[in-house]
# Entry
Amino acid sequence: MNYRSFKTIRSEVSKDNLMSVAEKIASYHRHSGTPEERQAFEYLESEYKKLGYATRLLDCDTYISLPVACRLTVNLRDIPAQTHSMVPSGNVTGELVYVKDVETSEIPTFEGKIVVTEGRAVFEPVKAAQDKKAIGILFIQEAPLRECIPSACWGSPTPDEWDLIPVIPVASVEDTYGSELIEDLKKGQQMTANLVTVTDTSWRKIPLLIADLNCPAETTRFVELTGHLDAWYYGAVDNGSSDSVMLEIARIAKAHQSELRRNFRIVYFSGHSHGRYAGSAWYADYFWEDLRNNCVVHTNTDCAGCKGADELRYSIIMPETKGLIVDILKDQTGVTFEGIRCVRNGDQSFWNVGLSNAFASFSRQKKIIDADGNVSYGKGNANLGPFWHTPKDLFDCIDPDYLVRDCKIVGEYVLTFLTAEVLPLDYTASTADIIAQLKQWNLIAGDEYDLSEQIARAEKLDALCRRFYQENIPAEVRNEAFLKLARILVPLNFTKGNIYVQEVAADIDPMPILSPIRDLIDPATPYRQKMALKLKLKRATNFIDDYISRAENLLNNYL
# Structure
């Protein structure tokens, strides 16, 4: 679909403004809930007040974890190590055991041992080690060591989510030291380690800043732009550069306030890095009704303007929000945007609310072909830069020209949503995607489960949706239909069916309510469990049928 975008912004973005604000933000050490982070929030609030925005600086009760100290000795030799957020404080001593893949290991138990594995510290291998009674786990990371959050709890935990947070000490070691450790273990050398982790973990208050700008019309509908202000250390790129982008877009939106058709809301979160998206999850919970009733699209920005960020094609995107950015990026840069399906990273806390979403980190490092023929970001690099999640994420990591480029792209996108008569949303792309996911699940299920009825229903909905786009429907009516349609199609496509909870902070399948199919087709699953899984899938298809029916009824009301 072709959209008329807000191109005026391309000549209005100020490099000086962007760099000045980014430099100011990067002067604050912004660990979540700390006094210095609060000063950064207060600075931004004062800037929005100067622009004429209505501001709210709120305090959120969240579960925050700050790494404090780590000590590792192996056979009485000190080895540099680093612990992580959401790791318990602990002091354990045990024999080391190397396991290349903890989750698939056939070793029956790690009881009394400290597991050594490779990669970044993430929850799945931690849980696998815990389940086999390991007393600790060491991750051998490619240098430089990066801060990690090995928890699968999205935001602060409810009583039934504590098991998504590690209960054993977890630490990372650079491959500079760890590779030798692994080689010695492979040779059968006996090693005893003492691992001490200290974290400052508790419920505490963190700030959240909301800045609102009203359009001339009387409306409660708003376009939302968000980003996190907390950081690892000084976090110039992650996320000070994007924080400056948000303020610059806000400045330009204010200059065009008379042209806005919808209100503009900008939100800065804390708890992104030290609470596993605790700030945005809190906002989704405590502003749930307002968001569900009034937010027409959610746009996020993370790590803008990074040096070396030449890759513009693969930001996360929902099907219905993709068309506009394809046009904008092609027109501004000549690059063809491909996008990837929204995954569980960034502040993606709004799927359950039913918000159509665009972006997190838009520009990234490009992959290269290594000497061994493998494709990677290169030794010591990452998709968001070599200094990502390290103390070296400082102001000189920002590329001024790339920061302007990213601001123009995201800004044109947001301003188009604010000013377009008809919202640039294509829900026929969403219905087509739902059909594709159902067909893929049906193929995976084989003879074990039949989704042909759900596919037929989705195809009928798709035809109805395409008819809706072809009809001559007033813009205001069409926009209201879009908002209501998103509340149905987004949870259908991206959640397990409970719109009042967050999905876990881990990889999840497309249409995750159908994920039980994976266990159903596993030859090792006993008959007793297969029958239970089929009952669970029946309830899943009831949800799918109901939501498709709701979407059909909604569209029929407008046709």
